[in-house]
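Key result, reporting period 2: structure in, sequence out.
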């Protein structure tokens, strides 16, 4: 097993300061990238989607739970499977109530959506002890339209913004991971962002989720300006 070289404290400090300079440069670069993500244009969602939830059928608008933003984690769970993808499972395992509360304090809801039927989702959710809401998109075009289920028979062969038809056999269906963000303005819903593949590895904390959204963390220092709802009192600061 290869381990780091053993050096003196002075040599370690010199190497650490070099790395710190690079870390600060990367932090500034990532802040700029996140600001660019918030400046993306958005697309109105015209199609009416229905999901199967614990209380019955719900619309995309109802997934917002009366908040302005919605982050959907597309959890890989084929209808024929008995369990969700292990990688998706690991990422949801770290979504606890405290993190959900922090995201909700920014007027944002996190929900899981999968193609498997609701009874399988509910059983798996209970076994894992998850509290994040989970809905089935079975019977709707949602998974296909947001390109996390690939199926030639449905005419959906794109993943991560690339044509995957050569890798997909006829009659084969594939589930893939993703995250999609939506913004609600009155009765209108807009798709603001989706990321796939290793882009989903960003998740794992409230700030990581909020950085994917159009409104971001909603803190005064963020670019672009004027996306903080100052009329909403009691906004907690969890920046430290």
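The corresponding designed sequence is given below.
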């Amino acid at each position: 097993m290869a381990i780091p070289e053993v050096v003196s404290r002075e040599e370690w400090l010199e190497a650490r300061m070099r790395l710190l300079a690079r870390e600060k440069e990367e932090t500034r670069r990532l802040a700029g990238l996140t600001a660019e993500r918030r400046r993306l244009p958005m697309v109105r969602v015209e199609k009416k989607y229905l999901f199967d939830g614990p209380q019955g059928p719900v619309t995309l608008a109802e997934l917002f739970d009366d908040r302005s933003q919605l982050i959907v984690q597309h959890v890989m769970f084929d209808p024929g499977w008995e369990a969700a993808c292990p990688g998706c499972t690991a990422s949801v395992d770290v979504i606890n109530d405290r993190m959900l509360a922090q995201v909700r304090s920014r007027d944002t809801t996190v929900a899981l959506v999968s193609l498997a039927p609701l009874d399988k989702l509910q059983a798996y959710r209970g076994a894992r002890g998850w509290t994040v809401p989970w809905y089935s998109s079975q019977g709707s075009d949602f998974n296909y339209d947001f390109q996390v289920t690939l199926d030639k028979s449905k005419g959906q062969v794109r993943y991560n913004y690339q044509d995957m038809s050569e890798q997909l056999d006829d009659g084969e269906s594939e589930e893939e991971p993703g995250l999609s963000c939506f913004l609600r303005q009155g009765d209108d819903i807009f798709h603001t962002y989706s990321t796939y593949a290793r882009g989903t590895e960003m998740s794992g904390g409230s700030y990581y989720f909020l950085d994917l959204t159009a409104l971001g963390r909603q803190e005064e220092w963020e670019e672009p300006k004027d996306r903080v709802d100052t009329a909403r009192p009691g906004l907690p600061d969890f920046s430290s």
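Residues 79 and 116 are 4 Å apart (CA to CA). The first helix runs from residue 9 to 38. This case is discussed further under Risks and Mitigation.
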